[in-house]
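This protein record is not my work; I was only asked to verify it. The record follows directly below this note.
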Amino acid sequence: MAGVSRLTPFSRLLIAAGIAGGIFYAVKKLLPQSKNQKSDSTPTAETPKTGKANKGTAILTLSGSGTLGANLIPKMAQQFMTSELNAQNVQIQKISENKTEITGIIGGNAQKIVVNTGGSAQGMNDVLSKTADIALLSSTLDGVSGDLNPSVIALDGIAVVVHNGNSVKELKKQQLKDIFSGKVTDWSQVGGAKGAIKCHVRDSKSGTFDAFNNIVLDKTPLVAGSTTHENAGALTKAVATDPMSIGFTSFSELGGTRALGIGDNGAAVKYPSVFTIETEDYTLSRRLYLVNPKNTTNSIAQQFITYAQADAKGQKVVAETGFVNMDLHNAPAPQPQNAIKATADTPPQYGAATTGANRLPTTLHFKTASTAPDERALADLERVKKLIAEPQNRAKRLILIGFTDNQGDAKKNLGLSVERAQGIQSELAKAGITATSMGFGPAMPIADNGTPAGKDKNRRVEVWMK
C-alpha cells in the first residue's frame, strides 16, 4: 500500500471510480433482465426506427414492379411467414423508397423476406443474375425465356383517370395514344370543354408505364412537358386537383380521381371494374406475375408462389389490397345475360344460348398461335372444376363459347372457335363435368384485331353456368 500512498488525490479518485464501475457491471450481469431489456444475442423482429436493414438471414428475395411490391407482396409475405413458416413477431419495415423487409423469428432465428421495387425490368435482370429469387412483373411477358416460369397471381386494370369535374366520360384507345403522344392537345378535340390537356405519367421504371407504353403508346414517345411521378399516389393527387389533367394508374390506386371508359378499334367501350378486369374484357386489363427460374434451388420461392395462387390464402390478400383476384367464389356475382349490351355483330344464337345463364368471371385464353390454354386458363380450369363440384352447382351445366380473331377465312375461323371450345369441353369431361360447346368465329371482339395483342385477346372461350 506504500505505492498507493504516493498517488495524487486525482489518481486515487480515478482508481475508486474504476473499482466502483467494475462492481456495478458484475452485479448487473448477475441480475435478471427486465421484460423491456434484450440480450445482444437474442434475435428480434421488432421494427427499428432507424430505417436500416434488419439483421437476419434473407430466406427469399423478390424484385421488380412497385405495383406489386409496394403493398400486396409485403402483406402477402407477412401472412405467408406467419401461417406457412410458423414465424413469430412478423413485422413489415420500409427500409427505403424501393426496399421493404418482412422480418420474423423462425426456430429461434431472425429471418426475413426482402422486397425490392426497382421496376419490372430490374426484377427480370435480378432473377437472371441470380440476385433475386422471384421477379415481380406487371408488364407483358415479352422477353421471358423458356427457362423461366411465369405465374399469374393477380389481375389489374390500367385506369385512365381525370378530375371529377371533367365532362369527358370515355375515350377510344387511339384517342389516348393521340393525347399522350401530343397529337391531341385540347379537351375540345375529344368532346370536352375547351382547355389545354395536362398529361401525368408514371416513371419509365414502373410496370404501369411499361404496360401503358406497350398497350396504348406502342412505344410512341410521350408528349413533351408531361409530368412524371414515381408513385401512383402522387399522380392521382395531382390529377384530382386539376380539372385539365389526365393520367394513368393502377385500378387499385384511383385516389380521388374518376376512371374513364375505354374502347378499342372495333370493340365496345368498357369501364374498369372487378368483373371486366377479371374477365379481361376491359381494354387496359393486365396480369400481374411472379416469375422464377424453373430450376430454382430455393424451395421457399415455389412455396410462396403456390401460396400466392391459393384461393383461401394468397388470393384473399390480393382482394384485401385492392387488386382483382382469380377466386371464382370471392368474385362479384356472375353477370346475367341481359346485363350484357348486345352489339350489331352479336349473333342471335349467342343470346339464345346464354338466356337464363350466368357468365363466370373468367375468360379462357390460349397460347399465341395455339389451341393450348395459356398459364392463367389452366389455373382457372381447376377453379371451374371445383366450383361446379360444389353441392349447390352439381345440377347445373356449363356453356362454353369460343371466339377467334378476324384474320383469314371466315369459315375456318368459325371452325377454330368451335374447336377451342371443344378442347375445353374435353378437359372438363376428364373430371366428369358435362358442358355444351359452341363457337362464333370473330364475332363480338373485345380488342383491336389489327394488333398482335388484340388478336390474342380475341382468341378466347367464355364460360357460362346455367
Remarks:
- The domain at 156-278 is CATH 3.40.190.10 (D-Maltodextrin-Binding Protein; domain 2).
- Confidence is low (pLDDT under 50) at residues 1-50.
- DSSP finds 15 helices and 19 strands in the chain.
